[in-house]
Specification:
Blueprint (H helix, E strand, L loop, with lengths): L4 H10 L6 E2 L6 E8 L2 E8 L3 H4 L2 H11 L8 E4 L5 E4 L4 E2 L8 H12 L11 H14 L6 H11 L2 H5 L4 E3 L8 E3 L5 E3 L6 E3 L1 H7 L5 H11 L5 H28 L2 H4 L3 H23 L1
Antiparallel strand pairs: 1-2, 2-3, 3-5, 4-5, 6-8, 7-10, 8-9
Helix pairs in contact: 4-9, 5-10, 6-10, 8-9, 8-10, 9-10, 10-12
């Protein structure tokens, strides 16, 4: 189906085309279901701060590269500012359900990681966290003492973590970005942060809500877990938790909680606790 996309955008923004419903979650986009000629689509509108964090040309390039893998929906139109319309996947994101199979989740990750497709950029997790630390300092935000203890421990493993072979990764592979359909197929969505990285980083991201869930995915992804794989998982999980701790504090300082309906200070505390849980689990699994 072909559309006049300039006209279509005006119709959406003016309210001439009314959304059927909003989709839950997402701090980077306002996501709404729309219907065009009897077919459902998802209309993504970026939040005000999203374009500061996302390379839109890279995002579009990555979407085009991974769509043929059969792991996501088709992008109908991608506007330069990050607004986009995708085919709608009938189903529920995993953050809304408990009935899902991590073996199937591992399969779609393998399709991505084993594809030999590469992004044009590397993710560079430590560099991202360092930039967030600078922003926190510029906003005069006080960090919990546990943050510094954990970050020092993680940084001691920096050379090891950065020495791993890179594949294309989602880099925000949490439950809210995975859809399960009524016929038990799994798809991933939202590729703003897709770049090359250690594939274990994606598995660690799955533990956003609960480290144990990520560890189960690790077991289903690898046939054998050795000390190096476990170390990669738990230390990436700790770094990710500290990253989201910093991001949440920044959003709280900026007063973004009203827009998203989140208490970002409490979100920050949750992720600091998540990092501590990952460290405790690592010590038990290794010892």
């Amino acid at each position: 189906m072909k559309y006049d996309f300039i006209k279509l955008r005006k119709q959406l923004e003016s309210g001439e085309i009314k959304p059927l419903s909003k989709l839950q979650g997402g701090m980077m986009n306002r996501s709404q279901i729309i219907e065009l000629d009897g077919i459902k689509y998802v209309w993504y509108t970026p939040t005000e701060q999203a374009n500061e964090m996302v390379d839109r040309k890279l995002e579009k390039s990555n979407i085009d590269k991974v769509y043929p893998l059969g792991i996501t929906s088709k992008n109908l139109v991608f506007y330069e500012d990050g607004m986009k319309i995708n085919e709608f996947i009938e189903g529920k994101s995993l953050n809304l359900i408990d009935d899902f199979d991590t073996k199937e989740v591992a399969k779609i990750l393998h399709k991505l990681h084993d594809s030999n497709v590469l992004s044009d950029k590397d993710y560079l997790p430590f560099e991202k966290v360092a930039n967030y630390i600078k922003e926190v300092e510029s906003l005069d935000i006080k960090l919990d003492e546990d943050f510094y203890i954990l970050y020092k421990d993680i940084y001691s493993k920096k050379d090891f973590l950065e020495s791993q072979k890179l594949t294309i990764c989602h880099n925000d592979f949490q439950r809210s970005n995975i859809i399960k359909t009524p016929d038990n197929k799994y798809y991933m969505i939202d590729f703003e942060f897709m770049m090359n990285n250690d594939p274990v980083f994606d598995i660690a991201a799955f533990g956003n809500n609960n480290v144990v869930e990520g560890y189960q995915l690790l077991k289903d992804y690898f046939s054998v877990l050795d000390k190096d794989i476990k170390t990669r998982f738990f230390y990436w999980r700790m770094l990710l938790s500290l990253q989201w701790y910093l991001v949440a504090l920044i959003k709280d300082k900026r007063g973004e909680g009203k827009e998203h309906g989140f208490d970002f200070y409490q979100v920050a505390q949750f992720f600091l606790g998540n990092a501590k849980s990952a460290r405790e689990m690592f010590q038990k699994e290794i010892n």
